[in-house]
User: Fold Arrestin C-terminal-like domain-containing protein from Phaeomonas parva.
Amino acid sequence: MAPTMRIELDRQDKVFYGGDVIRGTLHVSTREAITCRGIRVRLMGKGYCHWVEGSGDNKQHYIGRKTYQELSTTVFGNFYKTSLLDNAGEDARFGNMPGDGDLYIPCDGPGGPPKLIVRAMDYDWGKKDDLLGEIVLDVPALVAKGDTETFPLFRNRKQEKKAKIAIRASVSPTPNAPKPYLARVEIIEATGLRKADWFGKNDVYVQAYEPPEGAVLKNGDKCPEPEKRAYLEPGQYQYPFSLPVRADAPGSFESNGRGPEAWVRWDIYANVDLAFWMDPSTRMPINVLHTLPLPKPELLVPVKEEMPEEAAFGCSCFCIKLFNKGTLGMDLTVGRLAYAPGEAVSFTGHIINNTSEKATFRITLSRRQRLRDTTGPKQNTTSQSWSLHVATVAPGASIEGDLLNGAEARVPSDAHPSFFGIDSQEALQGNKRNKKDPVTWTYDLEVRFHIGKMGSELKSNFSFLVTAAPPYAEALPPAGTSPVVMGVPSAAGSVVPTLPPADPWAMQGAAVTTPGPCATAPTIGRGFGVPVVAYGTVVNVQDAGGEDKATVCVEPLQPVMGVWNAPIPAAAPTTAGAIELAATMDAGLDKIEALDTWCFHNRGAAASFTPDDVALVMSKVVFSMEQTGAAKTLASHMGQCTCAHVAAAVGACSFSKFDVTAAMAPWITDKRNKETVLSQLGAFDRTRAEMFF
Assistant:
């Protein structure tokens, strides 16, 4: 009888943000003994789209896929492996997805496991994988060095001519875990690999395992094969696990079944590794909320469009104008061009209906979705619309001031924050294996004032940004600020910002789309206490396209979204400091949530932190998986930081020096002083960190 498996997360709502650490327990119950390769838990985030063009013999299917994160951990057994790099060829470089080269190995001592056999492998479907090279790794020595080291690879008792592997290792305490320490072995790259396939390129992954007890091995010896026969006695077992979400994780997205299928989904998958076609497995969908984009200042000013009165006709189509009914006029001001889900959009101005018929005033928000085929240049564009407001204006009547007459036009809860993709960012970082995002989306706002179904109309379109968080109240212009008039360029030397072009996709240039400083709005996290509401229909992911049909998913996915009622109020004066924050973090298990909550309720306090304060706060984050997310959270609340601040954080996080540098680098204001930070990194990591400055 197959074992039963159940995933239980510490967060009952299953809602996470970029940079969070997912904690949970895998429950396994078996009535019979099991011999397996191991038991694993995996975090997966991926995007997908599918559409069809043509019909009959000319029907063409187009599919887009992209994996945003794939990170697994072995909770039972002595066999660990990285993500698979498809078509990596002779040079396999990890890091295209955060965590794709990480191996997390529980251990009993601060030096890590004494020895590990590390092997670069070529995956072959349906037959035994090919060995590309192996080494015997002295983990304590590598941990003590504190830097990335490159080793030659061996095969058949001979050193490969060109094959090398670069590895870094660290060991950190693991509170509330079966073993007191956790070794993180990071595979940076495996280069100069032999060609193992007759056709195509190597599909590379790296495996690691501890050698048999008592074995005396050195590099050049033929290493024993991994023991893939872990024995599990009948009984009930609980396996705690922790998995970090990438800091810039794209949020969950569902197209709600309207038109072609498109989504971004995250889930936790667990399996007993027997053979890939018969593994007992389970899957739990989770929601990752958006933390980007955020608005730049030019999107927070009121925007005005003036349309003088013009003749209105009962029939106005195909350049034919019949039955003059009078005139229509519209003078419209939108409060700003960037709002978060749940916020009420402001419309003021003057509309006048000087016709003999009633006129309709209509406001519509539309999402423009761009779908892209992974393997070719083919694209498809779809749309979804929400009616925000509809009103009737009687003949000869007008509305002045608040054009909504006291009603509200709120951004819908299922209007996901705009997403322009992260493929361009990955390409800039030199990731040659980067894939196009299968689905991206943006918005526009349409205001129509018309008579009849075929009559004249006045129409205004605004490019619109749906943000992950509303602006700070103090970032908004004062009441009575003169609006920017569409179509009228700002005068030379004017402080009035220039509007983005009238193209929804051009809003990317007016938005903060990568982690970094933003003076107008916060980078949200769990500590903000954002109300989360369900939207749309429950999705049975087991039946959806692009999903693994063989994996049991015991519960459906209920999409949720964080919603806001208004801008974030101005910060109250505070005298709280780093000592109080450190005490708060000591009292909480989730250090990132404790840090985020305290900084949100003591807004502005983190901005005055000294490097010593930063070192004190980061010293409270002893679990290496949390250090990157905590560093990003602290930097975002500080608003900006110096190289001295980053150096202090790096000094307090000996297990994650490079990752902490990468997380805080976007907020650095004095990059000329980079040596303060780089001097704390080893030679290999120093070279990689140079790109942040």
Notes: The mean pLDDT is 88. The radius of gyration is 28 Å. The longest strand covers residues 60-76. The chain has ten helices and 34 strands.
